[in-house]
From TrEMBL:
The keyword Chloroplast does not apply. Residues 1-28 form the signal peptide. This is 21 kDa protein. Transmembrane segments: none annotated. Keywords: Coiled coil, Signal. It comes from the Eukaryota. The lineage of its organism: Eukaryota, Viridiplantae, Streptophyta, Embryophyta, Tracheophyta.
């Protein structure tokens, strides 16, 4: 029995060694992160609505995320927050630029308000993600799911404000493109949070 056991252990060790050299081989020449981390992100991203954006926005954080569903969800919230912050700053600048119609300025200011709610909701989510533990898991993940869903609603309200026919085409396109990206990042983050939540049954 004991020899059978150690025989198994030996095979396991061989497989580990083989895997290890495979990983070293396939990551040779890559500067980014071990293949397994990037593959984990690619696979997890297939459960989101925008897998390409998901992978592109998160693979640069592969070495931090490793193969942790919690860190993946956390990183997705981080990426969404920084995108919302930079878009908000851009819109504040845009709303002060000359040549905008009053209704465009107004839509822009409404959007900045919606984005500020989004930023607040993402910040709260990230803060709870940092505090999550075995005993508060259900409560905190529930908060996070609620806030990230609310952020998604705020973004679509902002985007709707730019839907009118009487908006300048260029401004409309520029703003909507940014907002759509944030909404897609948020949707992906929510999917990854839900995925992490489901692992705890
Ligand atoms: C999220 O952002 C915070 C603050 O910038 C950083 O300390 C943390 O490492 C990031 N976490 C992940 C998983 O990206
Ligand atoms: C879990 O986190 C809460 C704060 O959110 C803290 O009060 C509690 O002591 C922590 N529990 C464990 C088991 O770490």
């Amino acid at each position: 029995m004991a020899s059978l056991c150690s025989d198994h252990s030996f095979k396991f060790l061989l497989i580990l060694l083989a895997l290890n050299s495979y990983i070293n081989f396939s990551s040779a020449g890559r500067q980014i992160a071990p293949q397994t981390n990037t593959e984990f992100i690619r696979t997890s991203c297939t459960s989101t609505s925008y897998p390409k954006l998901c992978f592109e926005s998160l693979s640069t954080h592969a070495s931090l995320i490793q193969t942790s569903p919690q860190l993946l969800a956390h990183a997705a919230l981080n990426v969404t927050l920084s995108s919302a912050k930079s878009t908000s700053a851009m819109m504040v600048t845009l709303s002060k630029s000359h040549g905008l119609q009053p209704r465009e300025v107004e839509a822009m200011q409404d959007c900045v308000e919606e984005l500020s709610d989004t930023i607040d909701e993402l910040r709260k989510s990230i803060s709870e993600m940092d505090q999550i533990n075995g005993s508060n898991f259900g409560l905190m993940i529930n908060d996070i799911q609620t806030w990230v869903s609310a952020a998604l609603t705020d973004e679509s309200t902002c985007s709707d404000g730019f839907g009118g026919k009487n908006m300048n085409g260029n401004v409309k396109t520029a703003v909507r493109t940014k907002i759509v990206t944030i909404a897609h990042l948020t949707s992906n983050a929510l999917a990854l949070v839900n995925n992490y939540a489901s692992l705890h049954g």
